[in-house]
Amino acid sequence: MSDDHKHDHDHGHGSELSEMQLRVRALETILTEKGYVDPAALDSIIETYETKVGPHIGAQVVARAWVDPGFRKALLADASKAIAQIGLQQKVGDHLIAVENTPTTHNMIVCTLCSCYPWDLLGLPPVWYKSAPYRSRTVKEPRKVLADFGVTLPDETKVRVWDSTAETRFIVLPMRPAGTQDWPEDKLASLVTRDSMIGTGFPKAANEVSA
Ligand code: FE
Fold first, then answer.
1. 59-97 pLDDT tens trace
2. Is the pLDDT of residue 24 over 90?
3. Distance between Cα 114 and ligand 1 center (Å)
């Protein structure tokens, strides 16, 4: 009786883990027991994405594009190739496309089907990126989604939404903030937020980072 009662509650009641986390754990256990995966290797992959790969890599790419017109051109022509050539990342997906924000066009990235994301450049995707509302509303009402993120654009700015796939990922090249003409690349990189590279935010303003 008490077991039945428990089961009537939402999954995860009495556990810190969500249903998805429980499923992942179960799958990992089976694969490990059958000898298909080495748990140490899994841990190291996860640790890499948690600690080593993160938005700071994408931020370096953006900062380089801001200071180096040749790199900017190469990045917009073939982002995977341009990034591999400067040695920031060996492999950036099969096909990475950089889309540039301008005063007339603002770009936003979504994966309507699941949660494809440029992991190599931005690390782990934020939870909202994987959420059903973000995935469906971004296509239908991008300006309203932007407003939820506190982003308002001039009426004349066009919003373009890019739908990622397993093969093709996107990164937004945001506009360089005003008042940063003489800034070195690493200081510029400190202005580049993760959300500005997804299109749900802007880079920080020059006065938001310390000298
Ligand atoms: Fe996806």
1. 999 999 999 999 999 999 999 999 988 876 656 567 999
2. no
3. 4
- The Å distance, Cα 206 to ligand 1 centre, comes to 34
Catalytic residues: 111, 114-116
Listed in order, the ranges of the chain carrying CATH 3.90.330.10 are: 54-208
Q: Are 153 and 43 in contact (CB under 8 A)?
A: no
Residue 125: what residue type? P
Q: What spacing in Å lies between the alpha carbon of 136 and ligand 1's midpoint?
A: 13
Task: Using alpha carbons, select from 48, 111, 121 the residue that is nearest to residue 89.
Answer: 121
**Structure tokens belonging to residue 180:** 């940063």
CATH number given to 54-208: 3.90.330.10
Instruction: Annotate 201-210 with b (16+ C-beta within 10 A) or e (fewer).
Output: bbbeebeeee
Q: Which two tokens stand for residue 140?
A: 């239908």
Q: 3-state class of 163 per DSSP? A: strand
Helix (H/G/I), strand (E/B), else coil: 142: helix
Kindly give, in sequence order, each residue whose CB lies less than 8 Å from that of residue 116, ignoring residues fewer than 6 positions away: 164, 165, 166, 169
Q: How many other C-beta atoms are found inside a 10 Å radius of the C-beta of residue 65?
A: 24
